[in-house]
Design goal:
Layout: E1 15-17, E2 25-27, H1 30-33, E3 44-46, H2 47-59, E4 64-70, H3 75-92, H4 98-106, E5 127-134, H5 166-184, E6 188-189, E7 196-198, H6 202-208
Parallel strand pairs: 2-4
Antiparallel strand pairs: 1-3, 4-5, 5-7, 6-7
Helix pairs in contact: 3-4
Length: 223
């Protein structure tokens, strides 16, 4: 990919655990909850990403909370997600050849790679999956579920519809609120996933027009 060719000035900024704050951030380790092999029961991101997430949470209107679903992930989890989605697409589209299968899978899951020059974004600690909840912790409607690999998950999907029902309008407004709050703190959004945001990694550099990234492969200190 074009993003994978962007040079990385490797930062030694540490990975830190995202701690659920009493009012700021909730953490739902989605993949551990699903029982995916190798998934960790916590969320880690780079220190600079965490600082920005806290700023996002503080800037949200009263009654809204930021929810972190995934950050840094082990390579085995990235591989599992890629393989599982590819096989799911294969089952529903038997007419696809291997190239079509791979391309459709890559719309929603980064290619699993630990290559120093082009690592999967979630291996860097610069990618984070987020959503919003109300003050009671109830997740807000975003029109699709987290990780739902369908066209409706594209961030702008609801923007393109001429007539929206009330439920769809609310979901569109929730997506907008999350999008602008994240962009305000320097994140970029992966266009095919309303929940996926990046800072400092190659995807961020690609979408923001930066000539260099600064987060390469990372591991928690206790890994």
């Amino acid at each position: 990919s074009k993003a994978g060719r962007i040079p990385i000035d490797r930062s030694d900024e540490p990975l830190v655990q995202v701690c659920p704050g009493p009012s700021l951030i909730s953490v739902i380790p989605s993949y551990a909850n699903q029982g995916i092999p190798g998934a960790i029961n916590s969320c880690y991101v780079r220190q600079g990403v965490y600082n920005r997430l806290l700023n996002v949470a503080r800037a949200l209107p009263s009654g809204y909370r930021l929810v972190v679903l995934d950050g840094w992930r082990p390579f085995c989890v990235q591989q599992y997600l890629f393989d599982a989605l590819l096989e799911s697409i294969r089952a529903s589209h038997p007419e696809f050849n291997e190239t079509e299968l791979r391309n459709r899978t890559l719309e929603f899951v980064c290619l699993p790679t630990r290559e120093e020059d082009s690592p999967s974004s979630h291996l860097t600690g610069g990618a984070v999956d987020v959503t919003l909840s109300d003050a009671d912790g109830q997740l807000l409607d975003m029109h699709t579920q987290f990780d739902e690999a369908i066209p409706e998950s594209y961030t702008v999907f609801l923007e393109g519809l001429e007539k929206l029902e009330l439920k769809e309008r609310r979901a569109r407004d929730n997506r907008r609120l999350l999008y602008w709050a994240m962009l305000e703190q320097g994140f970029t959004n992966l266009t095919s996933e309303w929940w996926h945001y990046d800072f400092g990694d190659q995807l961020w550099a690609y979408y923001s027009g930066n000539k260099r990234a600064f987060y390469g492969v990372a591991k928690p200190d206790n890994d």
